[in-house]
Amino acid sequence: MAAPVLVGVSLKMYFGHARALRWFDAVAERVREHPAVASGDVAVFVIPTFVQLLPAVAAFAGTRVRVGAQDVATADAGAYTGEVSAVELAEVGVGLAEIGHAERRRLFGETDDVVARKAAAALRNGLTPVLCVGEADRLGRDASIAAAVDQLRRDLDGAPAGPVIAAYEPVWAIGAAEPAPVSHTIAVTRALREALDAMPGREGSAVVYGGSAGPGLLAALDGAVDGLFLGRFAHDVDALVQVIDEAAALAAEAVA
Ligand SMILES: O=C[C@H](O)COP(=O)(O)O
Q1: Phi-psi map region of 67: left, alpha, beta (phi>0 left; psi -120 to 50 alpha)
Q2: So what EC number does this one have (predicted)?
């Protein structure tokens, strides 16, 4: 079977608790009946706040939707007030840990060294890192490739073997009106894919795009990425289902 087309959503801190629960139920109902999700051709993951994780795991039980955390501690246990370990996340059924998002790097001072230690913590505990990389400013194609690939290498330095989901998120395209231009995304994600392919122990990894992604983009990228990582444009469940339908069409093309 071909690798699934990935459709991930981070809810960041947009929703309160009640709204998040309603969104989980609405999404669970739609994906439960979706043949491409049920067959595994499209792999959906949802990354809510920490407080929303347990209800999310419960809401998506019986579906193939995986739940991820928006961050993870570098350590597995101990005196780390405010942190949540990969050990505990795995214990409660969380499957992925988002690491190194631009907002955490910018607002909370996360360095590549911290990101690498978080990636290591996720991998040694069986969580798939959703590792966010991308250039901070609008750069030319070659400079963007160099920035994203160097960041990927630094962020996986010393991390145990295991597949990762590299999310190419050019910082200038996050929270914007439009995603990065398709040709730019194709060039940088191709370079990230080549870099991952050259790393020992990273078989099964994927490269997705995030940054104002929404309906229409996956079709425009036409198989150049392994999927999308959505933010605001997945708040509307119909829009999310539209993206899942596009992912299903791509998955069907890939096997045809
Ligand atoms: O985690 C998701 C990305 O940062 C994209 O967010 P956005 O689509 O709202 O720009």
Answers
A1: beta
A2: 5.3.1.1
